[in-house]
Records
---
Amino acid sequence: MDTKRATYADLEALPESKVGELVDGVLYVSPRPAPPHALASSRLGIELGGPFDRGRGGPGGWLILDEPELHVGDEDVLVPDLAGWRRERMPELPKGAAFTLIPDWVCEVLSPSTASLDRAVKLPVYAREGVPVVWIVDPLARTLEVFRLEGSRYVLLAVHAARDRIHAEPFEAFELELSSLWGES
């Protein structure tokens, strides 16, 4: 059976209420994030943005963005919840709509509808493309997992939970209070 490979045109044809991603010619379509997912992602961007993106109360040196469209490999298009680039690698934003420079950090915030996509499909692509550090946040389980790329595979460095206060790679210079991600503070 010959299946048609999805293209960027298929992504562009999706309604705005959906998020689409292409991996190995397969179109993955997800609903917009539910409130716990949106809160965790938004709060994490706020918490890291001040000290790392803007340099307020922290070292600066990063560009951190919500839902950037990453064009990786030959035809893969991924949209992580958050991604960060060290400014020495990306001193200014690209002119087009998409990013081709691999991030230094990616964060996926799990939803019941996206958990297997984020873990089983996207994580291997991030490894293949050389993303050094990946965080996986699960707002329902109230956990944050930190993975570091070693060779061609990710190694789980830590699982933080609930109300932990953490200093996690690559943002060790800042204490992140996880309860803020769950709307508890």
Note: The longest strand covers residues 153-161.
---
Amino acid sequence: MDLKERARKLKIDIPAVFLALSEKETPISAKLLAGITIAYALSPIDLIPDFIPVLGYLDDIIILPCLIALTVRLIPPAVLVKCRTHAEGLWVDKIPKKWYFALPIVLIWMLVIYLIIKAIWF
């Protein structure tokens, strides 16, 4: 599989993993890891800051794909096929058609930032 094919598959697997969270057949371990993976994918904070030359992109090139691959292995194949099929239609013109899926993550990060600011200035 070439690099373009892997990137395309990864683009489908991220929303497919998110969709698998709501499936009853998805085991709890897969749901926990999927939640961590989605939170990490949407998080504005990286384990390795992007301003460090070369190393800053390792999380996007290595950590995130590994988390997705591990999560995918924990999801039952029938559920994953269904979620991948549904995920293919979620992206239109390189933007998510249903952007509100990211809203809970954005709200959590806004709460964290608020609590940090409150702790520092109050």
Note: The beta strands are 91-92, 95-96.
---
Amino acid sequence: MHIALIGATGYVGTKLLAEALARGHRVTALVQHPEKLQPHANLTGVAVKVQDTAALAAQLKGHDAVISAFSGHAQSDVLGYFVDGFKSIVAATKQADVARLLVVGGAGSLEVAPGVQLVDTPAFPEQWKASALGAREALNLLRAETALDWTLLSPSAMLQPGERTGRFRLGGDQLLVDADGNSVISVEDYAVAMLDELETPKHSRARFTVGY
């Protein structure tokens, strides 16, 4: 497939890029600094600002799918920056007539009890709260979306560097925990789950989650 990957040099984006290339897909990496990308025969790097909807739409045209690993965590106004950028990504994807949009979501909007989301619990780390609220708003925006065939993949509570095992569980709107009460997924296996969904869609217009 020909994939447009937004945020390909970020924490999650780098693993998504590696997984996509390893599977033989052609990738257009839409990033602020293409010089950070390692050369690859199936990789094209393009400098773009996601807030420039028209320019982004022009770069998205002709792709089979868009994967957004866009993140605003490094910005001073994390919530506002992310939500504005995400709205631009959705608008640009529609303008480019790309039907499928896959989105890197957050764990904060997953339920830990009926009607209680992780981000709303007292133990949720303050330094990640703005990012989590932005990711929840992105999910709400997608759920109101009628034109795109979207999918959002939420990680477990701990999304950390590790191994690519290909062995994990999938869930819906509830946080996945293991027998010891831990909620963990490696970034590498998160990328596997996302590319699996790209190649064999099972969560059209839905959010799902992945964990051990």
Note: Helices lie at 13-22, 53-60, 78-95, 129-143, 187-199.
---
Amino acid sequence: MPATALRLDHLAIARQFASAPEDWVVPPRFDPVERWYHRLAATEDHEVWLLTWLPGQQTDLHDHGGSAGAFHVFSGTLTEDTVNGPAHAPRVVTRDLGDGAGRRFGTHHVHRIVNRGVDPAISVHVYGPALTTMTRYRLSPAGLQVLTVDRAGAQW
């Protein structure tokens, strides 16, 4: 199956889960200290996560360890900062995604998600294959630099 079809499927899965919150295995929770997340489902080829974001909460710049995927904003507004270009001269593209908006990404996607709004936000994320690692980065004058590589079962 072409990579484009897989990404389309990831967004369709995220939208499907977002359209049926009554079927979520846990209700969303909001943690004032850090983002809250819970895995809703796992299959042989993908996994689905529910995340909540209070104003000001965000991820670090990160990739998905070679997994492609998508996310869908169930409620609120999230801002995605995507890193494009070569590692020695990256540029950041910013986009806001509100209620009902979704975003697909490929296997080499580096981004940060932030709730820059005043209201809480909820999002559904799908990764395929399931996440095994996530590399965290920072932007410096030298470009994009690796900080850590987190592993499933150890850091999350």
Note: Confidence is low (pLDDT under 50) at residues 1-8.
